[in-house]
Design brief:
The radius of gyration is 22 Å and the shape is globular. 47% of the residues lie in helices and 9% in strands. It starts with a helix and ends in a 7-residue tail after the last helix. A 3-stranded antiparallel beta sheet has the order 2-1-3. α7 (138-148) packs across α8. It has helices at 5-16, 28-44, 68-89, 98-102, 105-108, 113-125, 138-148, 151-162, 216-219, 223-230, 236-247, and strands spanning 171-178, 181-188, 203-209. Belongs to the iron/manganese superoxide dismutase family. Keywords: Iron, Metal-binding, Oxidoreductase. Destroys radicals which are normally produced within the cells and which are toxic to biological systems. It catalyses: 2 superoxide + 2 H(+) = H2O2 + O2.
């Protein structure tokens, strides 16, 4: 992703260093060589600040499971706040791909701001309008049956884990890959299973945000209804790809 800092800086520089009436404009050669140098620098430059991704669907596309007002507030405000938070903690030269940042996020104190970015990046892509998300692949369905007995049994365990009594306050529920096996777990706040030192470590392939901001406008205190409605909008097509990657040791990348 290109850095746009120079675009913001340019007007200020122009004000501080205006060209005098007698100054000669730079030659065409200097413009050409300067542009070439800028392009070369951009191509070889470091990773830049994390940015808010566009949603892969309209705000209202997940209704009735998640309402448009919640989606707009959740994405435009909460996700953006996490991005601003982690960008404020790191210089651009120190910003690796967000999945890489997760490894030592707890040790470095980036688990809330950085985890909030990664978790939401995953969350939006793990959702799709009802009827558009496909179904578990043959391989994933077999793994679900082996671990949980059936998809319905997985949903039952997921509902219990996502209930306020199990995930108290704010947090997430995850379907993860550990080696070649599936597991489900929860995490507090913006922690996730990629983080060293997480209560349960593994590669997440599906996550559910159970912070109140993810559901309260529609469901108020009825979190179990939100957890149940989530299954109607799972993007299994994406989860299937992440499952195959996770078997090879690769976490979702954003």
């Amino acid at each position: 992703m290109p850095s746009y800092a120079f675009l913001l800086a340019a007007p200020a520089l122009a004000l501080r260093h205006p060209m005098s009436m007698t100054a000669q404009p730079p030659s065409r050669r200097s413009f050409v060589s300067g542009a070439a140098a800028a392009l070369a620098s951009a191509a070889a430059g470091p990773a830049v600040a994390y940015v808010l991704p566009d949603l892969p669907y309209d705000y209202a596309a997940l209704e009735p499971s998640i309402d448009a007002a919640t989606m707009k507030f959740h994405h435009d405000k909460h996700h953006a706040t996490y991005i601003a938070g982690i960008n404020g903690k790191l210089d651009e030269k120190d910003q690796p791909p967000i999945a890489e940042l997760m490894k030592d996020a707890k040790a470095k104190g980036f688990n809330n701001a950085g985890g909030g970015v990664y978790n939401h990046d995953l969350f939006w892509k793990a959702l799709a309008p009802a009827g558009k998300g496909g179904a578990p692949s043959k391989a994933l369905a077999a793994a679900i049956d082996k671990k949980f007995g059936s998809l319905d049994k997985l949903k039952e365990e997921w509902a219990a884990l996502g209930a306020p009594a199990s995930t108290f306050g704010s947090g997430w529920v995850w379907l993860i890959v550990q080696g070649k096996d599936l597991a489900i777990c929860n995490s507090p706040n913006q922690d996730n299973p990629l983080m060293k030192g997480a209560a349960t470590e593994g590669i997440p392939i599906l996550g559910l945000d159970v912070w109140e901001h993810a559901y309260y406008l529609k469901y108020q205190n009825r979190r179990p209804e939100y957890v149940a409605a989530f299954w109607d909008i799972v993007n299994w097509n994406q989860v299937n790809e992440w499952y195959d990657d996770a078997l090879a040791g690769k976490a979702p990348q954003f």
